[in-house]
Amino acid sequence: MSESPRAKRIHAVKFALLVSVVCCLLITGASTGLSPLQQANKRLDRQKNILKAAGIITPDGTPSRIQIQALFQEKIETVAVDDAGNFMDPSQGQGLSLYLYREKKILKAYVIPIESRGLWGKIKGYIAFERDGKTVAGFTVYSHSETPGLGGEIEKAWFQKNFIGKKIYNAQNEFVSVSIAKGGIAALPETEQAHSVDGISGATLTGRYLTQGLKENLKQYESVSVKLRQAYQKKTVGNDMTTPPIKETN
Amino acid sequence: MNPLRKVFEKTDPYFKPPGQLSRFKGIYTATRTFFFLPSKVTGMAPHVRDHIDLKRFMSFVILALLPVTLFGMFNVGYQYHNGAAGVFEMFYTGARHVLPIIVVSYGVGFFWEILFATLRGHEVTEGFLVTGLLLPLTLPPTIPLWQVALGISFGVVMGKEVFGGTGRNLLNPALTARAFLFFSYPVSMSGNGVWRLPSPTVDAVGGATALSVGGTGGRIQEMVVDAGFSLERLFFGLHPGSIGETSAFLCFLGALFLMVTRVASFRIIIGGIVGVVVTAWGFLYLPGPTDTWFSAGPLFHLFSGGFALGISFMATDPVSAPGTDSGRWIYGFLIGFFTVLLRAVNPAYVEGVMLSILFMNIFAPLIDHISLKITAGRRIPNV
Amino acid sequence: MSNGNLTLKETFFRGIWKENPVAYQVLGICSALAVTVQMKTAIVMGIALTLVTGASNLIISLLRKQIPPTIRIIVELTVIASLVIVIDQVLQAFLYDISKQLSVFVGLIITNCIVLGRAEAFALANPPLPSLLDGLGNGLGYSLVLVAVAVVRELLGSGKLMGIAVVPQVWLEAGYAHMGLMTLAPGAFFIIGLLVWLKNSLPGASHEQK
Hints:
The structure holds 3 protein chains of 3 kinds. Chain A is 39% helix and 20% strand. Chain A has 6 helices and 8 strands; from the N terminus they run ααββββββαβαβαα. Chain A has helices at residues 5-53, 65-75, 157-160, 190-193, 204-220, 222-233, and strands at 76-81, 87-88, 96-103, 106-117, 122-130, 136-143, 179-180, 196-197. The longest helix of chain A has 49 residues, at 5-53. The termini of chain A are far apart. Chain B is mainly α. In chain B, 61% of the residues lie in helices and 0% in strands. The longest helix of chain B has 34 residues, at 87-120. A two-stranded antiparallel sheet of chain C has the order 1-2. Chain C starts with 7 loop residues before the first helix and ends in a 9-residue tail after the last helix. Chain C has 10 helices and 2 strands, in the order H-H-H-H-H-H-H-H-E-E-H-H. In chain C, 66% of the residues lie in helices and 2% in strands. By secondary structure, chain C is mainly α. Classes of the chains: A alpha+beta, B mainly alpha, C mainly alpha. Chains in contact: A-B, A-C, B-C. Chains A and C meet through helix 1 of A and helix 4 and helix 5 of C.
């Protein structure tokens, strides 16, 4: 072509600008327009896992969007607690998040998010406790990268259901967490059996890391559990709406 | 004249082109050379400068593997009866479980060998005699037979035939097969329940291997001994494990035989042992956990797991090992080094030997290349 | 590469079979390993890539006389990247579970050699219609391999097809076990390798014989 180098350069700059503007508009449009839907999806996914941990939906159930939302709305309340275990207003900054499961206004269980080291990557899930503050009501894993067939078994129902009914306090009321045993728990002394679940054959390490992770996570929520347990013993939990003293946040 | 030879002489023409059965020349030649020396002497790898042919070469390896195999059978029975039975009964129990594995391994493997030999019109190679026996020795006695069949198929086809057959493979086919099984069916290949046949007299939890001990606080050596794995027991082999790996003594004896007959390279074997000893000894002086195999020390590393079997019979596979002498030293040493490294810092793969050998198999051509370069560089240029 | 002696039909089908981007050109292997554990993700990934290749080829071809040669790669990448981001956003909005499984790999379509390769090698020199067909053909060729690999991996690795268990319970009770290797990335290497082997040994498909 007979254009001068200068004209060519100007054309290039103009063209680049035009392409950038068009592309920017396209991306911004898509991103803003779809953002509410995406947020809703993330929330729904979290809600589904919390419901699973609390035992409201079965591990392999595939409830619809609407069912999940309705169940969550009806039964779960998201709260935050401060380090001392008191419920706090979410506006007062970041506390530990906690989910309360109520059935007809009576506290049934509460759900704690778990994030633990695994053998190959992070293990994320939820663990639920009954209102006595020491009995495990359910456990789910929603994200992990363990070996399928070995450590990967942590996502399976057979492994998770073993957690139900385990205590995180021993007879002396000391915090002991839940441990994943090496092999079956039948070989353990009876006092240990209440705090242990059957290990996965060939996945001793995944079990060891998850045990550590559970202990660290539960330790953080220790003050909450203590409060709930005391309240439960005084029979104040569950009969009224006094705990927690804040409004629905979700 | 030998009547058998007459039979062969009569049938020979049918199998030589343009005989009507020349398609099956491979199988025919294999049968024939089983009885009589072939008329042709090999001139290619794995035995460039020797007059013994591939079949004699491999039969020495089989001979060296025989004690290991027989002891493996005995040990499988010994573990089943927990030592509380007659020697013959224990051997019989073991053989009853181990022989089917060997038969399946040979049978399925030969099927693929013959298929490829016929399709490609080359002769059935004897390398498989060793592969077909080595694979069962690396497996736990409880392995389902269909998995053995699948494993050996993978080893022969993907480990060897896709590269063009014996002599051209990069990896040791038996270990390729084992790696396939290890990653495909981890439940049959690892854990505490698979190393011993399910037995009414011994509970399955007792079937752990020495390498799975550790990580629960304390000192590893004491923990291993407490778990029932004293050094002599590990050395002589009456403990649960893969069929052929338990007796370090017999493996090293086989290695000695192969070194003396110069079938296996002594440089690889000695290099490997040195590698394990130096690395394990070095870890003792590094800060690290005292309750894992990190601090187990040289002897425990040398006698436990599959190291003895691997370094004696698999690392020395002449096809997948380097061909230069200096390269063999480095190759052996690094196998020992990686074995201990894997056991020490990645307890997820307690058996580091398999991966170390496969890993170094891949590096063998590079090692050869570098050592040839160095040798060539040292030479005084022709004037 | 000129379009001079190819009909539209040939332009389209060439990418699907004869010059299949994965099996013949060995491009796009990274994502082919990562998303083929399940058929569902493979299909979605295949559709996403086909749309991106088709659209980018069409746009680049429309602009081909305007694009200044000095900045052509940047322009191509900008177009491709924008398309990919839009697709990624749409997936997150409408197919959240699958987008979670595909994770970064949708975003990585940007770096997929097939897209830029077709834009560079074909769209820049050809009119819009053949370019669109070429893009779609190559995208479908990639999808074909992806789905083929995924069928094998999902069937052997977890005994399912499209998430539905197809291996009868009786087999599992009889001792059948799923092949764990197939759920790991190396499993895909073997399958792709075998596919290439198979393709090359089919009569008329081998390029080695030429």
